[in-house]
Specification:
By secondary structure, the protein is of the alpha/beta class. The protein has helices at 3-9, 12-19, 39-45, 49-52, 57-60, 67-74, 118-136, 153-167, 182-191, 210-218, 234-237, 253-265, 291-296, 302-308, 324-340, 349-357, 363-377, 422-436, 445-466, 471-478, 482-492, and strands spanning 24-29, 34-37, 78-87, 90-103, 106-116, 172-175, 200-204, 242-246, 267-268, 277-278, 282-287, 311-314, 346-347, 384-385. Strand 3 (78-87) and strand 4 (90-103) form a beta hairpin. Helix 15 crosses helix 17 (363-377). The longest helix has 22 residues, at 445-466.
Length: 496
């Protein structure tokens, strides 16, 4: 072992860093002999550093193509990739990368770092199997266009475009924020298309490490990595059907280039494989932003965008179609009444106003979870959802919830906005100080709602005072309609 490498591995600070890493770290010298494994490796493989020190890596691991030796012989880094191997009869999936260690021009050895992705790989595999079984099950409830709830003109236009896309076997790009229903749109398109009796498979590209993604999409060939097996990728599993690539703008540009080749040539090659496999799969993809932003930020290759967006469908966020919230709320109340055996009939006026005004950053998915959270905790004899049933996270304990009176994308009543009336300022400051003195963890929904109501009332009084009681002027100052301000005045018992 070179003296420089020995000095590195005897440095207490270096050892502390390496041994506190959760990743598995292996270091070999310039001959390929192991000189160090960190404590994560020791625990995982039931070995000690003394057991392996000085032994050639081939003595310890039966390998197809070792990333460590590849980096050693070629003197260049090996990018992170999937490494599948067997240990004690169990298959493990690792993300491995290796890089040579130099002192000037002198090669000291190689450091290999691995992350365990076994659980991630299993979850993905289980999810794929579940979707395939649901597709084959005639009793399974499939998502159709009837599953898309909303009457807003823009939303209905998106549905109409999707219906047209179902009959045309072209690539579709769905653009919509997280939780807006992109996968429901994708399933509805598939289930209304000539491919409806073939598999529909989906993968969230943002949830999969890039080193695993290619193996999952294209498959692997036996012998590619240590103990690897022939593994069919999603493209082959979806043969004849549809593959939904969710949040494709999270995929690395390198992987996007490989995907582009597949789409253009309609064939794949498994990792480590030597032959091309013809495929017949329709691609529906999605991005969680606008195409313009994805292209400007270099999140999406321009050539891939053109290939994926033969038809582009923009799904409007739920905050832009507030009247659809009533339809969605009614649907989810019925759904969770059946699930939790409750008899909820309606929202209180305060909750309804809150639902209409809240910006719903998580879109339809968030609305669904809020209603489920409320219904699951409400006593069986109650028929109305109230403010006290709302999840705590919807409230900001230092101000109020977002989006009551002003535009839904902006915070509502800012605390520190001065009034022209000193007395009003004193009152407002007193309320703020009182609220700020309360610890956030001690705030219950009832207390939060009281604070919200007090601040809302004070804000209206300030605006009316500044406008000399002119409701139209006060409404403009608050950024709301006259009708909405009148409603809030009546709610608070405010008279001119």
């Amino acid at each position: 072992m070179h003296r420089e490498l020995q000095e590195i591995l005897s440095n207490p600070c270096v050892l502390t860093i390496l041994n506190n890493m959760t990743e598995y770290v292996y270091i070999v010298d310039d001959q390929g002999c192991l000189q160090f494994i960190n404590q994560a490796v020791e625990a995982f493989e039931n070995l000690t550093d003394a057991d392996v020190k000085g032994k050639h890596i081939k003595e310890l691991y039966t390998q197809g193509e070792s990333p460590t030796l590849k980096a050693l012989y070629e003197r260049t880094p090996v990018p992170e990739h999937e490494n599948i191997y067997m240990l004690d009869g169990k298959q493990y999936h690792q993300l491995a990368k290796a890089f040579p260690l130099f002192a000037g021009d002198k090669l000291l050895g190689v450091c290999t770092v691995q992350r365990d992705m076994t659980l991630v790989s299993q979850v993905l595999s289980d999810n794929t199997t579940l979707k395939k079984n649901q597709q084959k099950n005639p009793k399974a409830k499939r998502k159709t266009f009837d599953s898309l709830i909303g009457e807003h003109p823009t939303f209905r236009q998106s549905i109409e475009l999707a219906r047209n896309a179902a009959g045309n076997d072209v690539s579709v790009l769905l653009s919509g924020f997280t939780g807006s229903g992109k996968e429901v749109f994708a399933q509805a398109i598939h289930n209304s298309s000539p491919r409806r009796d073939k598999p529909f498979l989906a993968i969230n590209c943002a949830a999969v490490p890039d080193g695993l993604l290619e193996g999952i999409l294209f498959g692997t060939t036996k012998g590619t990595y240590t103990g690897s097996i022939d593994k069919v990728g999603l493209f082959e599993q979806a043969e004849g059907g549809t593959l939904f690539l969710d949040e494709i703008n999270s995929m690395s540009l390198e992987s996007q280039a490989k995907l582009l080749r597949v789409l253009e040539e309609k064939e794949i090659r498994r990792l480590g494989g030597g032959c091309d496999i013809k495929i017949n799969v329709r691609i529906i993809s999605s991005i969680n932003t606008t195409p313009q932003i994805a292209l400007q930020k270099n999140q999406l290759r321009e050539d891939l965008f053109y290939r994926l967006s033969v038809m582009t469908i923009v799904i409007p966020p739920v905050k832009n179609r507030p009247h659809d919230i009533d339809l969605l709320t009614e649907h989810f109340i019925k759904k969770f009444n059946r699930t939790y055996k409750k008899n909820l009939q309606s929202l209180s006026p305060e909750v309804h106003e809150f639902f209409i005004s809240y910006p719903w950053p998580g879109n339809v998915r968030q609305l669904k979870h809020v209603i489920e959270s409320a219904i699951s905790s409400i006593p069986p004899d109650r028929t109305e959802i109230r403010m006290q049933d709302m999840p705590h996270y919807l409230f900001d304990a230092t101000t109020t919830y977002v989006g009551t009176m002003q535009d839904i994308s902006a915070p509502i009543f800012p605390i520190a906005q001065a009034s022209t009336d000193p007395a009003a300022n004193d009152a407002t400051q007193h309320n703020v100080s009182k609220a700020d003195s309360m610890h956030a963890n001690d705030l219950q929904p009832e207390n939060l709602y009281t604070i919200i109501e007090e601040r809302e009332k004070q804000k209206i009084l300030d605006a009316l005072l500044q406008s000399n009681g002119n409701i139209s002027k006060a409404a403009r100052q608050l950024g709301v309609s006259r009708q909405k301000l009148t409603y809030h005045m009546k709610k608070h018992g405010i008279h001119r």
